[in-house]
């Protein structure tokens, strides 16, 4: 993951700086970092989610630029995170509802024991070299994200495992013997973290030439001009922006508050779409009781909005 040093697109005064970060490193004292990190974020108007575990840190935070800088400085002052890198983008509105620092078993959950990206990992490929690799006929390109993410965007020609969670990915690999038909495996995800474990797992499974996109889709969309891009669609992000496109501009997708699936403008027009209650992706899997409960929650959110508040059940 590479820290962005380029000049960002012009932003409004009210824009928020968004920092995405992860770092795999042994942190036996990770639990002791939770309280001071939570307090620092709150003091500086920073919101988002940070995950701490024995294997490192992962998360995305947003806030005023000075606040984000203060949090990053605190993290890099810790010996384990001295070389921490991050990626930056902007949001016109605060994209998170609250600040959460959580203690976890893994900073990205694949559920396979003894996978350590600090010991073995695939070969990093810079965004500018990615097109050449995935256009090589000797390369199989694999999207390691989940089905609701791939539904709105994917690299041209990539294999979509259609997994619902990252935990399903190892079994998908084991059951697809055709992955051995070509010598090169190229893998990608949103920001790079899932590929750290995915490529480590692939190497463990006997795949020799395993590559992954450094900085993920986000770095590619920032660095590669739209007219040279092999990316098709938008990239799902885990905050209130829902999606981003080339140049890391905010996309046009809306989130279904019932099932968390990103929705296109056409899907919002469907008869099965009701804000906060249902959408074409979840209507048939929800009961009338579910929809009644979601409808009440949406009512409370609407009332809070009219009062100028933000309803935390959102």
UniProtKB/TrEMBL annotation:
SMART domains, sorted: RHOD
Span of domain Rhodanese: 135-229
Broadest EC class assigned to this enzyme: oxidoreductase
Catalytic activity reported: uridine(34) in tRNA + AH2 + O2 = 5-hydroxyuridine(34) in tRNA + A + H2O
Keywords: Oxidoreductase, tRNA processing
GO molecular function, one term: oxidoreductase activity, acting on paired donors, with incorporation or reduction of molecular oxygen
Matching Pfam families: Rhodanese, UPF0176_N
GO biological process, one term: tRNA modification
UniProt KW tRNA processing keyword: yes
EC number(s) given by UniProt: 1.14.-.-
Domain of life: Bacteria
SUPFAM superfamilies the UniProt entry points to: Rhodanese/Cell cycle control phosphatase (SSF52821)
UniProt cross-references to NCBIfam families, sorted A to Z: PRK00142.1-4
PANTHER family for the chain: RHODANESE-LIKE DOMAIN-CONTAINING PROTEIN 7-RELATED (PTHR43268:SF3), THIOSULFATE SULFURTRANSFERASE/RHODANESE-LIKE DOMAIN-CONTAINING PROTEIN 2 (PTHR43268)
Record family assignment: Belongs to the TrhO family.
Function, as annotated: Catalyzes oxygen-dependent 5-hydroxyuridine (ho5U) modification at position 34 in tRNAs.
Descriptive protein name: tRNA uridine(34) hydroxylase
Source organism of this protein record: Mycoplana azooxidifex
């Amino acid at each position: 993951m590479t820290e962005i040093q380029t000049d960002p697109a012009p932003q409004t005064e009210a824009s928020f700086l968004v920092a995405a970060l992860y770092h795999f490193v042994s942190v036996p004292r990770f639990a002791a970092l939770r309280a001071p990190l939570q307090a620092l974020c709150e003091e500086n108007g920073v919101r988002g989610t940070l995950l701490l575990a024995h294997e490192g840190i992962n998360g995305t935070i947003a806030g005023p630029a000075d606040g984000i800088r203060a949090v990053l400085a605190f993290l890099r002052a810790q010996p384990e995170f001295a070389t921490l890198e991050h990626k930056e983008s902007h949001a016109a509105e605060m994209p998170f509802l609250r600040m959460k620092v959580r203690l976890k078993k893994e900073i990205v959950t694949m559920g396979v024991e003894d996978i350590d990206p600090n010991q073995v990992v695939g070969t990093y490929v810079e965004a500018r070299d990615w097109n050449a690799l995935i256009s090589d006929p000797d390369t199989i390109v694999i999207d390691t994200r989940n089905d609701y993410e791939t539904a709105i965007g994917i690299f041209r020609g990539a294999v979509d495992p259609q997994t619902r969670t990252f935990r399903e990915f190892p079994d998908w690999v084991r059951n697809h013997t055709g992955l051995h038909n070509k010598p090169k495996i190229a893998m990608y995800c949103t920001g790079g973290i899932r590929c750290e474990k995915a490529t480590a797992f692939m190497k463990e499974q006997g795949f020799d030439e395993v590559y992954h996109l450094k900085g993920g889709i986000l770095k590619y969309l920032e660095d590669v001009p739209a007219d040279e891009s092999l990316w098709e669609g938008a990239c799902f992000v885990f905050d209130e922006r829902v999606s981003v496109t080339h140049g890391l501009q905010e996309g046009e997708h809306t989130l279904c508050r019932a099932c968390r699936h990103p929705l296109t403008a056409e899907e919002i027009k469907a008869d099965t779409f009701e804000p906060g209650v249902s959408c074409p992706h979840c209507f048939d899997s929800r009961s009338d009781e579910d929809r009644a409960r979601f409808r009440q929650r949406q009512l409370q959110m609407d009332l809070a909005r009219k009062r100028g508040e933000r309803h935390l059940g959102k």
